[in-house]
Amino acid sequence: MATITLTAYVDVDGLWKPDRNPEALWYPEDDPADALYAAKMMIPLIHSGSHLGGEMLDWAGGRAYDAGLTWLRLDAWTTNTRLHDYYRKQGFRHVRTISSRVSGACFERPAQPYVNGKLKTEDA
Hints:
Radius of gyration: 14 Å
Strand content: 25-35%
Low-confidence stretches: 13-20
Helix content: 25-40%
Distance between the termini: 30 Å
Number of helices: 3
Number of strands: 7
């Protein structure tokens, strides 16, 4: 079984406290309410290389798009550069790293439609 958790910023506002916490992941100028946040994505090793993770992220981006949001965002383990590279290959942009946080590498990519198991792009 593979899993991913999606949450709106309003659901996690108490955790990040952007107006009070100098180590906040997302700042008011990032417009945190204009994104869906992916977390706790887990895929069995047996599915490694099958693009299941990419498909799950594409699906999550589709949920953000359907909700009228601009971004799909996530944070990653600060020191896991292989994971950072993976997210970049999945179309995410590195926004910032809060080095004092264990999971402080912040990434985002635009929300896009997810139709029939594929991302719907302008080229399709």
